[in-house]
Backbone:
């Protein structure tokens, strides 16, 4: 199968279920919104087992408090871990940032369950000075900070969604592959209910061949720079560079749609040879996303 | 004492010792450098007990591999925790980001000890395909990734420095206080060997009065929005807003110099009433930084 | 009349008719789109008699060539001047910027007339190597550049709209006024068919009192810093700073809506005393926009 | 001659003399500095005959008024035009931007002559309310605006420097050429006394072959997209894309140094085939910069 003259391999991405919170951060200006969103979603990726990223910006005219905002998502595979992670990321990355507020942004019909703010480090931070108020048509905690009151919905919706939707961009030059990856990331960021952190240079396999105890190690079959030394390399002869795009989202459909849009965008860049995906024989989670099916 | 007509309270900031790593991240463009630096220093602050931030940009003409870069620092109070944190932040926030490399940026004469990359998740990620090479006049690990080789110095210097250098900006309006905080952050970022994450809205006290088991809770004495309800409030009558600036650095001198520059910058903004600092009766660490001494 | 406790003066803004072109610039990435949009709309304001600015971003999924884009507007009071200005700004600020294309973005039902690309410096730049092609469902010039073909619609729609819709934000501190101005600019940028360049510090009057031949001079009645010396000052006693917001748009309605949204946003910032507007006794153009009518 | 395996053609860039002003813009925050710098240097390039761009940022600790700043340059070939252009760009792009000030940044020993602010639209804007004051160790005009006083040095130094220092980056893919151009621009921006606006996609020749009266037209010999149709094409067989880098500076040495640094940076990007330069048989100005000499 070809798209814009780029070969799409007949293979599947192996995704897996993950619990996600989805919140709207608002602040007095977009700059402070972004500072908070970057802080609250930072320090993840790699071997962290945490997924977190910015989904989209929200206009001031569309936010509950009439201020500019940004929707972020936080994900973990286990429910308890997600509950703790979501609270911690708000406590560390939103509460301290000037002028922020936090709204539950999980659509009601998508909500599997709620995380209560009560008895979390966020509520406890109030030390008895916090109260629950009716504001913006919602029930919110109102917690005194040094720069004014911080507001947060009393509960935040969580949904079991899909993580690890992925595709690989294989290019004939590092520059073309990098540009295609950038273009694909931006196209995916236009899609609802999904997020992508960045292109990943470090494709990994589960465990190690040489270092048996390592949790995850470089996926040598996709490293163009050592292709000639690897017997079962998956690098086509013209390919010099590969980036992995990892898409997380609230549903299989939203992930598939975003992958489709991202793949399409990547193939518009001259110098891309092939699109494929990675899977691990079902070890990771058993949600198959066949590239040919979604395009 | 007054500076630019702003009262500087005769008090001290209570700082404490912390171990810091200091690394230079380079990449093909400044954009990717920044993406990596933000990721590697994100998700901290608040109650995380981790300090991490960007110190400064480095011109391509001043970096070992001739590419643009950025120096970041990562800090924790315990040596073992710092060692693990530094490696984890590089593994999660630098290795996966396109085209990055990592150099030890701790000056030799400031280095207390080294963290070896050997046997960490970074080296192990190579799964036997990594090697140590002489390049840029250094010994570096060369680890194959999908987009090329990732280089990192074989060891990273750590220094026991100073965390929690702080001052409070008290303003007569939220806007003036926020602007003063922004201006102070930027001025501090011009200083060497220190970093500041952002202005903190959530000043905290150790433990809680109402919630005894809470680790840290809002410092109600510095919350202008509830000043009238707090008997021992520290809020002067004209003050409407407070931000805390927290400066970390490699030495007491560098922290003091940065605080001085930050305080000076804050006082240039019309609408600032007072500068003070927070301390906790020596509970936290016993490094006193007297505001009047440093100005 | 009050909005969020801020007095809205019962006065009117004096606007005037202006011809506007509205184009969509696309490029391979949003960064290059922005570089082009900034270049094409730069160097205006002040005494230039040219209005130009960014209206909004356009998602790649909503643009004719599937690439990210940005809509800009260019305005002049005389038709001939606008025709020349629009072409010059595209020739200087879009054509040279890597990977750009240019689409007419004036809605058909709003178009008063078209500027033809034929025989302009843009077509002539092709030196006979250009051709007209059918692409993206449109007729476009295809002009060879060093980095590939540049595409531009064969004609660009122009509409006689409204310039100089304005309001003044008067604040009790420079910081609050500046923040309110920033917030108002961002809110206005969410509205369709209008643009605002930036807050203006330099309010002007037509002609000069001391310097009779000067085209425009400082509007001393609105300068808080010399209010005590000016007999007919318009500065209320608590006001320390004023910014003017100038809104241009394709119709009176779009300008009024944007002014309304901007005023509302400005009044949410603590420290704003009053909103008013400037007019010149009808000298400028005679389109009155009464503040009380639009709110 | 080769650099990083990229062929450097044995040819020369044709530069020409140009008059330049060099000013420092400061403001309360870097954001407003940048807004002003972009406005004051915008709308040039292409066929405008005006050169203008940002040279570098200036730390608050290094500026006369202790605020962050940015140095920009403005250039024109004729002295009178430069004098008028420099004033107009400050009047339109600096004066109206919140909180800005303007300092002469032409080093004394490089100054050929001064432009006086007296009797320009900048001084006249004061309408008699302006005065000359001693501040920051300089003589400056102090002009009342709505947000406070605007300060500008009473005279601005001008130097006859060099414009049009150029080189062409020829790449085997559009992505590689674009990345090399970005990297070269950033490297050049680290050099003193020079500026570069952006990579130029629209290489031009003086006059037209088909359209005799056109001022400048596409340089078809450097258009890869039509290379097969052009008999005397300069496009090597593997080249798919070309960008021109145009460097302006205060002296021949600074321009040459910046070109050297830019060329070196461009050649580090994989996929670059050749570096060359454009000249017009001496028609433009007769300052020859031989590529082999400067490397």
Residues:
């Amino acid at each position: 199968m070809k798209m814009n003259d780029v070969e799409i391999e007949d293979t599947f991405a192996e995704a897996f279920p993950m619990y996600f919170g989805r919140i709207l951060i608002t602040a007095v200006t977009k700059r402070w919104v972004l500072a908070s969103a970057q802080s609250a979603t930072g320090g993840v990726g790699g071997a962290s087992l945490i997924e977190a990223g910015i989904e989209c910006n929200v206009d001031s005219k569309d936010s509950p408090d009439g201020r500019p905002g940004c929707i972020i998502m936080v994900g973990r595979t286990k429910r308890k871990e997600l509950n703790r992670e979501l609270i911690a990321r708000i406590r560390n990355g939103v509460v301290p940032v000037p002028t922020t507020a936090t709204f539950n942004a999980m659509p009601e019909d998508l909500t599997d369950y709620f995380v209560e703010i009560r008895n979390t480090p966020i509520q406890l931070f109030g030390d008895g000075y916090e109260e629950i108020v009716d504001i913006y048509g919602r029930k919110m905690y109102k917690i005194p900070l040094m720069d004014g009151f911080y507001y947060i919905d009393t509960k935040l919706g969580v949904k079991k969604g899909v993580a690890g939707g992925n595709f690989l961009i294989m290019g004939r030059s590092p520059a073309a592959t990098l540009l295609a990856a950038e273009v694909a990331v931006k196209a995916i960021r236009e899609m609802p209910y999904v997020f992508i952190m960045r292109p990943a240079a470090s494709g990994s396999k589960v465990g190690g061949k040489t270092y048996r105890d390592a949790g995850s190690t470089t996926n040598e079959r996709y490293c163009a720079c050592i292709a000639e030394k690897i017997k079962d390399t998956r690098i086509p002869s013209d390919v010099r560079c590969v980036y992995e795009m990892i898409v997380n989202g609230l549903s299989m459909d939203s992930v598939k749609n975003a992958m489709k849009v991202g793949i399409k965008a990547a193939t518009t860049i001259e110098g891309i040879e092939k699109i494929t995906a990675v899977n691990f024989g079902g070890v990771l989670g058993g949600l198959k996303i066949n590239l040919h099916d979604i395009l």
Summary: Residues 173 and 240 of chain B are 5 Å apart (CA to CA). The mean pLDDT of chain B is 96.
